[in-house]
Specification:
Helix content of chain A: 10-25%
CATH topology of the largest domain in chain A: 2,3-Dihydroxybiphenyl 1,2-Dioxygenase, domain 1
Shape of chain A: globular
Largest interface: A-D, 39 and 39 residues
Number of domains of chain A: 2
CATH architecture of the largest domain in chain A: Roll
Distance between the termini of chain A: 25 Å
Oligomer: homotetramer
Largest sheet of chain A: 10 strands, mixed
Structural class of chain A: alpha+beta
Strand content of chain A: 25-35%
Order of helices and strands of chain A: EHEEEEHEEEEHEEEEHEEEEHHEH
CATH class of the largest domain in chain A: Alpha Beta
Chain lengths: 335, 335, 335, 335
Amino acid sequence: MNLPELNLDPPFNITRTSHVVLTVADLEASRLFYTEVVGLMVTEQTGDTLYLRGIEEACHHSLVLKRSKEPPRCERVGMRVLRERDLEPLKAFFDRQGLNTAWADVPHQGKTLHVTDISGVPLEFCASMTVVPRPLTQFHLHKGGSALRIDHYQILVPDVGKACAFYMSAGFWLTEYLSPGNSGEFAGVFLARKGNPHDIVFFKEKGPRLHHAAFAAPESFHIMRACDCAGALGFGKSVERGPGRHGPGHALYVYLRDPDGHRVEIFNTHYQAMDLEVAPVRWDPADPFRVNPWGLPAQRKWYQEATPFAGVELNEPAVRPNPVTLERYLAGDGH
Amino acid sequence: MNLPELNLDPPFNITRTSHVVLTVADLEASRLFYTEVVGLMVTEQTGDTLYLRGIEEACHHSLVLKRSKEPPRCERVGMRVLRERDLEPLKAFFDRQGLNTAWADVPHQGKTLHVTDISGVPLEFCASMTVVPRPLTQFHLHKGGSALRIDHYQILVPDVGKACAFYMSAGFWLTEYLSPGNSGEFAGVFLARKGNPHDIVFFKEKGPRLHHAAFAAPESFHIMRACDCAGALGFGKSVERGPGRHGPGHALYVYLRDPDGHRVEIFNTHYQAMDLEVAPVRWDPADPFRVNPWGLPAQRKWYQEATPFAGVELNEPAVRPNPVTLERYLAGDGH
Amino acid sequence: MNLPELNLDPPFNITRTSHVVLTVADLEASRLFYTEVVGLMVTEQTGDTLYLRGIEEACHHSLVLKRSKEPPRCERVGMRVLRERDLEPLKAFFDRQGLNTAWADVPHQGKTLHVTDISGVPLEFCASMTVVPRPLTQFHLHKGGSALRIDHYQILVPDVGKACAFYMSAGFWLTEYLSPGNSGEFAGVFLARKGNPHDIVFFKEKGPRLHHAAFAAPESFHIMRACDCAGALGFGKSVERGPGRHGPGHALYVYLRDPDGHRVEIFNTHYQAMDLEVAPVRWDPADPFRVNPWGLPAQRKWYQEATPFAGVELNEPAVRPNPVTLERYLAGDGH
Amino acid sequence: MNLPELNLDPPFNITRTSHVVLTVADLEASRLFYTEVVGLMVTEQTGDTLYLRGIEEACHHSLVLKRSKEPPRCERVGMRVLRERDLEPLKAFFDRQGLNTAWADVPHQGKTLHVTDISGVPLEFCASMTVVPRPLTQFHLHKGGSALRIDHYQILVPDVGKACAFYMSAGFWLTEYLSPGNSGEFAGVFLARKGNPHDIVFFKEKGPRLHHAAFAAPESFHIMRACDCAGALGFGKSVERGPGRHGPGHALYVYLRDPDGHRVEIFNTHYQAMDLEVAPVRWDPADPFRVNPWGLPAQRKWYQEATPFAGVELNEPAVRPNPVTLERYLAGDGH
């Protein structure tokens, strides 16, 4: 299969997934969920905005929740560049492709660039945040899933190949991908900057929509504890998929829906990916027990439901994907 | 609700769940499953019989697999009495109720009593087995779920109340039970001798059939590792339910189906139950998020499929149970 | 080696280790240590007395702390009998041997018998306690070592053989013991009622003194988390020995000293012990890498320091033990 | 304190710690230790050379063991560059400082550059290795510590400040350092390329010598299992320090000595370090309970013993360090 070209020398250095900004109806309900179940720490609350970070994060926020009376949306996903001087050439990269760009003033972030990517995803880039204490050794304060840090986003888009080519031209490595049979088409791609398998993941569906933000957890115990704390605190229905093991990326995972329906993944045990000689791993979704090595497939809504981006128009893929869902499995179909 | 009477002074001392005897089609396939996935150790194989034990067990066997060309069956479940002299009064207890009893000569077991219980379950009792090394500190040999020991059986019977009264009259403590609404009827009972919540569990369904044998695992990690080894070795479809958390009994669990379809549970973290002042815990199955505190319900076949006992006739319950299955949940019913 | 005789039919039924009563200087400091490091839950505080229990315990207390201006002492260790009617024959058992007995009125306990054992240890027995909620599924409230329940005591006495014979005559099983070379003498004994290796352990030293009370923890993770919470909260020096692995009993352990110097063990992964045909396991303390299978030996003070019982006279053993301490190891001696 | 300058734009891109080459007396003994205790996988053995890798590594080797009749040595530590074309400017960097450089032909590695660093450490750099399967999901084959990957080296040198300045000028980030009181001198430095706290660590002692190579493990359970497998296989004495928790870097660790006395660390739970606004963390070794947050200090030999590099002359530091060792602690000194 022909893979897009990786540009190893773009004139800017995007370093990692940084933060996600979500709107929510009830800030207290969300705070309870993200601190006691996911295990994030509150950095501060200012008015209608709650800033959270993982227990190993010394940056001001990796999750920003804003109270809103509108239906829940993702306002923006954020990435880091190494230095502020990376922002101008990054702006030029987007400008050259006729994509929206604008400078923004965002609290607790250095100079920030707002852009829209090739799929319509609203992104922001900055080089720095306010530094706060890293709570990693405040062990007595760690709760629920003890989320260490934000790791990646998964985004649904109608044209995965286009998104893949765009990010590879910006220096993202393709580490793994799903491609059905001999279609030559991408069903999903893992794109990485920080040296593990993923900073941003795209799957084919109506989009762009945020499928989930993923937080790394220390041990398999914490994945179970997140679920158990969810159960103890009345969030039992929020456990939508798993715990289970991914084929692609190899992570142990669980997916939860927050009080507004935003999806979050808590996962651990993937791998370091920083050697160019290792080819991207190809998966065929038609082989469900490679993609989902044990247990039941995900229910249909895991594939189809996602958070719209605020004010962004949705498009359907040319051909709708037809994954092996739990519903098909129980009907004796596709397994 | 009226609970049957507990006889604290029966003239015999049943100490614990001991072993289960299953027939299988392919001894090599079963051996792979039970050693690499469940993590049992092989004590020995003699002809068509394979004897296995958990990593903390110094007894000769807690699982006996016999090669058979017939459809897979459970031949018998076994329990221990403290001393051989407990066997005669135990025989008298069964004889008085007109139940079948017979002495048996079983390899690697002391004097053994065969009986049929009030529900038609074939049991055997013995006071001792051949002692073998306890492999608990052979850490480099521990595999898969690292099953520590057999813990309990779950058996489907049409009349749970009758089974409960029978075992309580033999000295089994009722620790937890499920009873719908104000029915005054038992949907399920946990009965215990060894000081934790269960040695034998009964649930209402066509029976008697063996729903599962349960093995305790050291840590939540081992529950995940059992699944992961299942996936790696081609047993991925065997993971039928979970990992999840039980309401009743509070255990973290996973259920797998062995190569013949016999169901096995690997679980950990329950509690000590040896104080008389603690009342049995009642659960209402109509409250699915107490009984199943997080995640999806079990699929229908988990409720309905089970292993027949060899040569034992099946009976239907007066009223079929109607649990909240995964199928009903996905159809929007009952949750 | 000649082992004392086990009386399997005493006229009373002691079921398990129940609780320990300690005096402390600063109730707030102790509360912080036992809740945040060990992970016990507070049942209640009344005046100068703090009652705690493990996360799986439905009984009112397994640890009682009393504020005192005197040097820290253990007032008493407690055990359970099955029924109140076990207490009279138990009193007779102690009376016959000329040991002190008295009825006592103890808050939140049923009828309570105070006795002094053959080594001078002050014990109390009761059949019941006030029942309180079992916090096992309040996962969001579990802290530090998440101590599940009290498991056993270790007591230093000058004559271990005498203690062993006394308890075996009361129905305690000898599961493991240490005996040097061909001495025919006991250096240490594990004595059990509840079906695991130990309810009460005796080692030879000046005594009687309480060496430690031991609490079971769910997973190896919790043993590390207890240490990490100790470090985070300024109790780092309290970690006296381990984490490490015991030869005898096979547990993964850590020993901490509480703010008054009382020693507590947090441990997991031992085994079920309820089969008579399994002989007690013998260990020779002269073989340090069997008794202590990896890592460094314990420092001298772990062997020699312990909590006196309130008002109880101390006696020296005929011959002082000479264990392979960390000090001897570093001096190149004895390993 | 004045920190050396970080060169963010060197004309080459060193990506990560890659591999270490050790000589050993008995290849079979080493193989047993590294596979069953550390949990590395054997890639292949060719004549007197054994190649191993971690369970998440798709590269041919991260540990190379060569049979030798000479006393055990470290031949070389290896690092990766992103592309082969990084090697020429890297050679020029060393050449300009009058340091030894040479091209080498190394099996299973791309074009390889041999150099000697500013402290006399023999290094090699390459851009690629033979790609082999990543055994991460062969869960049934994971053993002992289940070492995921090589993470970093710790090297003893007489002048830490000089080593620090040299590596920072080559693009290594200083993430943490130890500096006593107001000395303005470095006792230890953590230097990183791959986005976590360390690829190469220097501490002040007679050197250059390899103090240890460190491998990341998945969970705290695996740290304990490495020790337990060591104990079960007769390597119990090899556990030299820990398990414990580091202050600097925050990792949970254990140190073992392999059959030739080479030291290896197995650790987990550190943090991502890829934001420039986060200042290097300073530690004062005079505060032992910050540097070693709980438990006993390391014994003296942990500080002083290390593996010489083959054929490299040793130098003493101007002033010998005087750490708070276990020996000083037991003597009541320095804590």
